[in-house]
Amino acid sequence: MTLQEILEYRRSVRDFDEAKDLDTEKVKHCIELATLAPNSSNMQLWEFYHITDPEMLKKISHACLDQKATETAKQIVVFVTRRDLHRKRSKAILEFEKENTARNTPQEKSRWNQRQLYYNRLMPFIYSRFFGLLGVFRKILATSVSLFRPMTTSISESDMRVVVHKTCGLAAQTFMIAMAEIGYDTCPLEGFDSRRVKKLLKLPCSAEINMVIPCGIRKGTSGIRRERFRVPFEEVYRIVE
Fold it and tell me: Phi and psi of 112, rounded to 5°?
């Protein structure tokens, strides 16, 4: 299928054919493709929980309010944000960049110095948390600087929470597109008990559930809400010339 055909084929399917199984390795590959999604500063503050065990599927479904989509799903993928892993991710990026620079652009020492400053100093400063106080300090500092030059001001602790969720959402969308390309269906859910899902997956308190995505193969047209509704394009499109 072309990209347009894939996007037109993808629907939020709420009733899967329980007689049709999914190839676990194919779903896993789609999750791997999701890691290619663009993300803020390449920090990749996400984790993906691929659930295939029937008993765990039932428990997750119950935590998702026993919706039809999870009750009939053959597999479920839970997208999780891990803002708390920012130091670990920064270190991994720098280790890669050091070798990457040595292999490809050894003459660009200034770039390497910039990367060190960015990931050793700026990222820990941006992502660190302390009961909201660090976020308030960052906000005041950035707002003051922005009075004299353009400056990112959305850097409070709640702002950074939004950033990691946007990033994880991009990965989730990439996953659903990859699934549609091989004829598998998905249904992104935001209706779930996050406390129960976190407990089932044994996640730390700092982790957050971004999205729960049941997977399967659509059962005819019963799982799709008839024709797709979209607001007229003219209402949402603005060209700035």
Answer: -65, -40
Task: Retrieve residue 179's tokens.
Answer: 């699934």
Note every long-range contact of 9-12, with CB atoms under 8 Å and residues 24 or more positions apart, other chains counting: 9/180, 10/176, 10/177, 10/179, 10/180, 10/185, 10/186, 11/185, 11/218, 11/224, 11/228, 12/186, 12/187, 12/188, 12/224, 12/225
Rg (C-alpha) for the chain, rounded Å, is 21
**pLDDT value at residue 174:** 98
- The reply to whether 129 falls in a domain is yes
Would strands 208-216 and 75-81 be described as parallel, antiparallel, or unpaired? antiparallel
Domain that holds residue 119: 88-158
pLDDT tens digits along 159-182:
999 999 999 999 999 999 999 999
Please indicate, yes or no, whether residues 32 and 131 belong to a single structural domain of this protein. Answer: no
